[in-house]
Specification:
CATH class of one domain: Alpha Beta
Subcellular location: Membrane
Protein name: Flotillin family protein
Largest sheet: 3 strands, antiparallel
Family: Belongs to the band 7/mec-2 family. Flotillin subfamily.
Helix content: 55-70%
CATH topology of one domain: Tetrahydropterin Synthase, Chain A
Main location: membrane
Pfam families: Band_7
Number of helices: 7
CATH architecture of one domain: 2-Layer Sandwich
Radius of gyration: 85 Å
Structural class: alpha+beta
Length: about 400
């Protein structure tokens, strides 16, 4: 649009002409446009972008040592209206002079501050130096509408004097020593790593050799077993055939033995058993016959004893008739004698009945012990009679 102008984002538009408020010679426009009436108004632009100024100055320290100092200053026009007007009044037609003037201002403050410090302080405390220079120049820069964003000390040297090098020599020596120590440690670590690597390689080679030897031993063993498998199998087969033949021969011998037992031993045992049974039967028969004969003879003996008992008693009584007896008890003593004879007769009968029977080999008749016992009967009866005839004691 004719007469309408807009400044760039990093510019300030200054409109002059017409009425203004106060003593301000310009109308400042930033961030938007404005109408500029041709022929009656005039517009100019002031940069608000960041500017840079470099300073290279020879400065003398508190110790009298000359140092070459290089620094870089980053600055710009302030954003407020007062700063823009102040900068425009000084640099609007020659804006490049802002860097020149800024460098001169900082060079003066740099010489002043370095003159109050020692070389050691300057070297060790560069940030302190930069801060003091900024603080000293801030007010002066604000009067010309400029603000400083940063000050960077780039280099400091003694122009070949060797003071800074001598000052840094102990540190350099310590650094070199540390570097040598570090290098020695690194070399030692490298040597140890190399030794460890060689040891691992040797161990791996040893393990590989052991494994190969084991594999070779297993292969040789398998080959040997395979080579022996044929003869071993043949020998095993022959042994099994021999065992089978032995077993068959043993079975044949056992079968023949069983046949011999069936053909020879069993008939002989059967015949012997038959003869034994017949002998036992004959013996049992003879035993039964003997027991029967003995029983028959005892019955006959008992009958004969019973028949002969009166005769025995009678003969005993006859013996008493010829005996010289004195009966002291009268009729009672005589009764005792008679009772004794009877009881003795019964005892003689039992004794004779319990006697053994003998066979007369010549006559094959049973011989009774009556004959041998006749005298005993007689003497027994007489003894009894005498005891009956004795007078009682007292």
């Amino acid at each position: 649009m004719l007469g309408y102008k807009v400044p760039a984002p990093d510019e300030a538009m200054l409109i002059s002409g017409g009425k203004v408020k106060g003593n301000v010679p310009f109308r400042v426009v930033t961030g938007h446009g404005a109408f500029v009436v041709p022929f009656f108004r005039k517009a100019a632009f002031l940069t608000l972008a960041m500017c840079e100024s470099e300073v290279a100055e020879k400065c003398v320290t508190q110790q009298g040592i000359t140092l070459n100092v290089r620094a870089v200053i980053a600055f710009k026009v302030g954003n407020d209206t007062e700063s823009i007007i102040a900068a425009a009044q000084r640099f609007l037609s020659e804006q490049d002079q802002m860097s020149v003037l800024t460098g001169r201002i900082f060079a003066g403050h740099l010489r002043s501050i370095i003159g109050s410090m020692t070389v050691e302080e300057i070297i060790r405390e560069r940030q302190k130096l930069a801060t003091e220079v900024l603080d000293g120049s801030k007010e002066e820069m604000a009067r010309i509408g400029l603000t400083v964003d940063a000050l960077q000390i780039q280099s400091i040297d003694d122009d070949g004097l060797g003071y800074i090098d001598a000052m840094s020599a102990p540190h350099n020596a310590a650094i070199q020593q540390q570097a040598q120590i570090a290098q020695a440690k690194a070399n030692q670590a490298a040597a140890e790593a190399e030794q460890e690597s060689q040891r691992k390689q040797a161990e791996f080679a040893r393990q590989t050799a052991v494994v190969k030897a084991q594999y070779k031993a297993e292969i040789d063993k398998a080959q040997a077993e395979a080579a022996q498998a044929g003869p071993l199998a043949e020998a095993q087969a022959q042994r099994e055939v021999l065992e089978m033949r032995t077993e068959l021969a043993q079975r044949a011998a056992e079968l023949r033995q069983q046949e011999l037992v069936a053909e020879v031993v069993k008939p002989a045992e059967a015949e012997a058993e038959r003869v034994r049974i017949l002998a036992v039967a004959d013996a049992e028969k003879m035993k039964i016959q003997a027991e029967a004969a003995a029983s028959h003879n005892r019955v006959a003996l008992d009958r004969m004893l019973i028949d002969q008992l009166p005769v025995i008693v009678e003969k005993a009584a006859r013996g008493l008739a010829g005996a010289n007896l004195t009966v002291l008890n009268g009729a009672e003593g005589l009764s005792q004698v008679a009772a004794g004879l009877v009881s003795q007769g019964v005892a003689i009968f039992d004794a004779l009945r319990g006697g053994t029977l003998d066979y007369d080999e010549d006559s094959e008749n049973v011989v009774s012990p009556l004959t041998s016992g006749a005298k005993e009967v007689r003497s027994h009866v007489i003894g009894t009679s005498h005891r009956a005839a004795e007078p009682p004691d007292g």
